[in-house]
């Protein structure tokens, strides 16, 4: 039976390099499960695979969408499930690597069957956000789906907006449509998360942000500044620099805020992963040794 090897873990833990080391040894491709690396023009801020890594192993779902294009975990699930059988003609083991947990879950467990969001509904929610902000959207969600409003992170703009889209599109509630049922797959799945001491991880995050700034993250953010309203740019690294460009934050504060918000994001990733009993936490060298054994 074909096998999917999933390499995940918190941001800056070394997932990309470990995936390349594994894929190059077993002769397979890499499927990127990253909701930001899929967009073009953001290689520094999204820590996209380096040119050397891309040359060594073929990657899928990296730098293939324009910033204006809408994408979702549901679409990712559909496209990966169509891609995998073609890859398994060449190698019965494939690697998926990334830290976007909904994307990983979409492939490993499947997502609930939710209605396709029409452009009119998507525009309606975007317009609402522009008019009343995130607090206003949360107030709307409490009216339409109080159960989910009590569960969702009120600061996660994307999830609040998506829940409202579902409510408007379906005429019901997001809570009613969320079953949490694991979908059966016709392949085996091995899921690994890179395990690092918390202080080591945070040092890596801080050092990577400094390296991104040195590599030209400010120039990269400046090039897309005129598109800052897009969901594809509603992410750590760009948001803080946009605030600096707007004059609402000084440069040093913006850089320190990127580090802090990245550490917060890493903690959220770890919380998500540790709830999943199918994920094994191991040091990277142990993951590599086990897969190659």
Quick one: overall form? globular
CATH level 1 name of the largest domain: Alpha Beta
Query: What integer is the average pLDDT?
Result: 93
Q: Considering DSSP H and I runs of 4 or more, what fraction of the residues is helical?
A: 40-55%
- The N- to C-terminal Cα distance equals 18 Å
Written overview of the protein:
The chain is globular. The chain has three domains: 3-112 and 183-197 and 271-292, Rossmann fold (3-Layer(aba) Sandwich), CATH 3.40.50.300; 119-177, Histone, subunit A; 199-267, Orthogonal Bundle (Helix Hairpins), CATH 1.10.287.890. The chain is of the alpha/beta class and 293 residues long. It is 54% helix and 9% strand.
Task: Please specify the SSE layout and strand pairing.
Elements lengths: L2 E6 L6 H12 L3 E3 L18 H6 L2 E2 L12 H16 L4 E5 L3 H8 L10 H26 L1 H4 L7 H14 L3 H4 L10 E7 L3 H18 L1 H7 L14 H9 L4 H24 L4 E4 L1 H9 L1
Parallel strand pairs: 1-4, 1-5, 2-3, 2-4, 5-6
Features:
single chain; Rossmann fold; Histone, subunit A; Helix Hairpins
């Amino acid at each position: 039976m074909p096998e999917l090897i999933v390499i995940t873990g918190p941001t800056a833990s070394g997932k990309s390099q470990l995936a390349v080391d594994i894929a190059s040894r077993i002769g397979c491709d890499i499927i990127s499960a990253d909701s930001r690396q899929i967009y073009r023009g953001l290689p520094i801020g999204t820590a996209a695979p380096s040119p050397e890594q891309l040359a060594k192993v073929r990657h899928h779902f990296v730098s293939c969408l324009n910033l204006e294009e809408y994408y979702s975990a549901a679409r990712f699930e559909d496209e990966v499930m169509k891609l995998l059988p073609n890859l398994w003609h060449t190698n019965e083991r494939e690697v998926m690597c990334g830290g976007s947990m909904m994307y990983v879950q979409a492939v490993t467990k499947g997502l609930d069957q939710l209605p396709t969001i029409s452009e009119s509904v998507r525009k309606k929610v975007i317009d609402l956000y522009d008019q009343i902000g995130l607090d206003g959207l949360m107030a709307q969600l409490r009216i339409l789906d109080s159960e989910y409003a009590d569960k969702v992170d009120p600061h996660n703009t994307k999830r609040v907006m998506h829940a409202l889209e579902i409510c408007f599109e379906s005429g019901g509630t997001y809570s009613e449509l969320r079953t949490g049922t694991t979908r059966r797959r016709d392949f085996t799945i091995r899921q690994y998360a890179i395990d690092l001491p918390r202080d080591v991880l945070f040092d890596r995050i801080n050092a990577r942000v400094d390296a991104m700034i040195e590599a030209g993250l400010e120039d990269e953010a400046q090039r897309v500044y005129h598109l800052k309203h897009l969901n594809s740019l509603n992410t750590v690294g760009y948001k803080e620099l946009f605030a600096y460009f707007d004059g609402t934050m000084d440069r040093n504060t913006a850089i320190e805020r990127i580090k802090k918000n990245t550490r917060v994001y890493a903690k959220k990733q770890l919380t998500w992963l540790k709830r999943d009993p199918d994920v094994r936490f191991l040091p990277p060298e142990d993951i590599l040794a086990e897969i190659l054994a």
